[in-house]
Design a protein that fits this description.
Length: about 450
């Protein structure tokens, strides 16, 4: 081990050196099947995971089917109006019960043996029930299996497969108020729009987190969008942009010079009518929430990461993005639009247009970002097995000197990424002695 090097990882996957002010991640963290399996077991099975927003299932018996941590789930509002999540697995023989992606149903019937469950999870019909002794007792043990924990904050629904997970608000910490700030943007309340953007990425899920928390790449990677904004008269800048470690693996970028925000910060491409509407909206928000809270909500864009699978983009529009790791080199992404309930149709149309122009899957940002972290996933194969120095390590040292002095981290530093990796390392623990290459003598 190089002199002055501090190994923060139990399995040798992170190298942090406060003497040399360097921070490196071994690339096996992105490509190892063993690491991926350890993440499933120790992170995804023991943390709160973002499942969805309760406005996705507004009516009794509405349901969605989705997968979290590799586990198929039914996300449903029961006939009693209560939001629940069940393992999408028949208690009888394990068959997937609900095979439609979404809908409204009072009952779910397993196609294999026709066991039927109501939308609150109770076994309601059992063909040939005369073959079972003590029928009512038996039926009482065969309801759909709920997730171990479910809780809701500001409509954001989280689940955990661990019954001993800490309370949700304890897990969210400072991130809870960031979600509250988004929920408070409209007096009429906020809702998700019907429909979902879903796509697969040929890259490790942690690269998606890095990309979202990486203000350093904005100007070079998205130079087409930056040029477009400047041509419209919006002064793009990296000044006064900061990264915040929110604890618990959560982090946030606060951005004031990358884009306008509908109803909050006007920019020329929104048009003159939106300029006046923004002024009136900000005045109404100050009256409703107080000037200090309204300014905190309205004056800056934010990109929030909630460990381990929620990204929230409060930019031109508000986008909820959920990560689902499929394999070491494959991630599925789901995204929803989060909007004021009573928004006028022309403003809603503008919101969707500006969203698709940047963070949408066909916009000026997301395809760039996907290509970037797919290119990383391809590129890390080049140094696989190379034990010379730090050849097989990715560097995230930018801004570490500022961090060592206790100064506020800039968005173009890599501090938010380091805070994520430190928490990931703690949550993962030791993988195996053979996973990472041995430290070299430095480089």
């Amino acid at each position: 081990m190089a002199e002055g090097l501090v190994d923060t990882g139990h399995g040798g996957l992170i190298a942090q050196d406060w003497n040399q002010l360097t921070f490196r991640v071994n690339r096996e963290a992105y490509r190892s099947a063993e690491v991926f399996q350890a993440e499933r077991e120790r992170i995804w099975n023991h943390n709160w995971l973002y499942l969805g927003h309760e406005t996705e299932i507004p009516n009794k018996n509405d349901y969605k089917v989705r997968t979290l941590g590799g586990k198929p789930l039914i996300f449903v509002r029961g006939g009693d109006g209560v939001v629940r999540a069940f393992l999408n697995s028949c208690p009888h023989r394990g068959t997937v019960v609900c095979r439609e992606e979404q809908g409204n149903a009072r009952n779910f019937q397993c196609f294999y043996h026709a066991w039927t469950f109501n939308s609150s999870g109770k076994l309601s019909a059992l063909p040939g029930d005369d073959a079972y002794a003590e029928l009512e007792r038996f039926k009482g043990t065969m309801d759909l299996r709920p997730v171990a924990k479910l809780d809701i904050h500001e409509g954001f629904v989280f689940v955990s497969f661990d019954p001993d997970v800490p309370p949700l608000l304890e897990h969210l910490g400072e991130a809870a108020d960031v979600l509250s700030m988004a929920a408070e943007q409209s007096a009429s309340g906020m809702t998700t729009l019907p429909g979902i953007q879903r796509y697969g990425v040929k890259g490790n899920w942690k690269l998606a987190v890095e990309n979202a928390m990486d203000g350093y790449h904005f100007a070079p990677t998205h130079n087409t969008f930056v040029g477009y904004l400047r041509e419209t008269g919006f002064p793009v800048t990296d000044d006064d942009q900061y990264a915040h470690d929110l604890g618990g693996g959560h982090s946030m970028l606060v951005l004031t010079g990358h884009n306008g925000r509908l109803g909050m910060i006007w920019e020329p491409r929104f048009g003159e009518a939106e300029k006046e509407r923004t002024r009136l909206n900000r005045e109404a928000m100050a009256e409703r929430l107080g000037q200090e809270r309204a300014d905190a909500i309205g004056d800056a864009s934010r990109i929030l990461f909630v460990f381990p699978n929620l990204l929230f983009f409060d930019l031109e529009a508000l986008t909820i993005r959920q990560l689902e790791p499929v394999a070491p080199g494959r991630t599925d992404v789901r995204a929803w639009q989060y909007v004021p309930v009573d928004e006028e149709p022309d403003v809603r149309a503008m919101r969707l247009k500006t969203m698709t122009s940047f963070v949408g899957p066909g916009g000026l940002a997301t395809p760039d970002d996907i290509e970037a972290y797919e290119a990383v996933q391809r590129g890390i194969e080049a140094s696989k097995g190379d034990t010379r120095g730090f050849n097989d390590w990715s560097d995230m040292s930018r801004g570490m000197e500022r961090e060592s002095k206790g100064e506020k981290g800039r968005s173009i530093d890599e501090g938010a990424m380091r805070s994520f990796w430190r928490h990931w390392d703690k949550a993962l623990g030791k993988v195996s002695d053979a996973t990472a290459t041995e430290y070299g003598s430095g480089c």
